[in-house]
Every structure is written in C-alpha cells, then in structure tokens.
Amino acid sequence: MNVSIDQSWKKYLISEFEKPYFKDLVAFVKQEYSTNTCYPKGGDIFNAFNHCTFENLKVVIIGQDPYHGPNQANGLCFSVNDGISHPPSLINIFKELQADFNMLYPKSGNLMPWADQGVLLLNATLTVRAHEAGSHQKKGWETFTDEVINVVSDQKENVVFLLWGGFAKKKAKLIDKTKHHILTSGHPSPLSANRGYWFGNKHFSETNSILRDLGKSEIDWTIQ
C-alpha cells in the first residue's frame, strides 16, 4: 500500500505512519491486495484526504466500511463511482437531500464534488475484501481514522460533524464540542430510515446555515 496522501495532511499524520500499528496495517493491506480482490482500488484508498485538503475542510461525514461490491467504492464514504447503481443508504441520503432542497434526484452517486468543496467523507475502515463486509476491521484502520478525527478536532475550529447512526455517534467523544458543531441522526440505511430515524433531519440545509453564520461559503450539495 502506497500512502499517497495530500501534503496538507502529511504534517499532521506523519507521526502515525511511523508507528508500529500502521506499519503492520500497511503489511496487512499489501498482503490482502496481492492475494484477494479488495476495494477500493489501491490508488483510491486515501481519496477522502486527496479531494478534501486540510485547509479546505469544513464538514466531516463519518462512515464505517467501504462498499464491497465490484467497482462501487471510490475512497469516499457513501460514495460510488459514476455509472454504478446507488446502494440503499445512498438512495436515502439523496431522498433527504431532495426533500431538504427541493432538488432533482442525482443521476451519479459519486460524491467527489462534495469532497472538493471541503467535505471529508471518512470511512472508519478504508479498505475491504470483495464481498466480505467488515473484513478489514480491527486491523489498525480505526486507530488511524480516530487520530484523523482527533487532529481535525484539535487543529481546526468550527467544523460541522455529521454523525449518522450509532457507530458514527460514538465518535463524538473524540470531538471538542466547545469548538465544533455536531449534528446527529439515525443512519440512512433502510433499517433505520424506514423507522423514522433519518428522513427529515435536514442536515444538509442545517450545515449550510451553520457555515453561513460563520461567514464561510456554503456547500453546494448538488450532484449531477
């Protein structure tokens, strides 16, 4: 695994790359990618950081695991490559977006335009074996991504964290609530959304309202 991560993040994370756990993680991922089909493709593993620079970061959305179907995962949580059918959670994200802004349902499920505007779409685990959900959990990724959240909390101010579902909400303990804004709701997966825990949260417009009040540019949530 080549740790090709944007320079803006390197000065904050370089010490992590030298730690024994991370070296073990790199060895594990290299072995997995050489002997199994894994996602996302190697060059996309750190896409969340390479499309959202540290300076540009305004919003963090936390996911759990990359999609494990062919050509789905592109290194951003909840996002899929162009031309790929939208997974159920992403469909519900887009339905909420539709209702929140009265906009058309997007054709593409690729969330790169969000990342490029300063939305860090961070999965807790950055790789997965094909068709085996959770197969790369507890190998070191969570230690690394928790440190990413710590760094953002410590080094930035007035970041909007969107914590969807029980797993993401547990990350709140890593965030300095006196400096940042935390919005929580149920997960957009059908199980949670259909029980009334997701739809109507208006997190997208609420995020823009917070950014507007801070004098920051809003996120254009439109996906074509």
UniProtKB/TrEMBL annotation:
Pfam families with a match to the protein in the record: UDG
The compartments listed are: Cytoplasm
Q: Which GO terms describe its molecular function?
A: uracil DNA N-glycosylase activity
Q: Which reaction does it catalyse?
A: Hydrolyzes single-stranded DNA or mismatched double-stranded DNA and polynucleotides, releasing free uracil
Q: Where is the Uracil-DNA glycosylase-like domain?
A: 50-211
Stated EC number for the protein is 3.2.2.27
What the entry lists under SUPFAM superfamilies is as follows:
Uracil-DNA glycosylase-like
Task: Tell me which residues this entry annotates as catalytic.
Answer: 65
What this protein is reported to do is described as:
Excises uracil residues from the DNA which can arise as a result of misincorporation of dUMP residues by DNA polymerase or due to deamination of cytosine.
Q: Which family does it belong to?
A: Belongs to the uracil-DNA glycosylase (UDG) superfamily. UNG family.
Which NCBIfam families does this one have? PRK05254.1-1, PRK05254.1-2, PRK05254.1-4, PRK05254.1-5, ung
Question: Protein name, please?
Answer: Uracil-DNA glycosylase
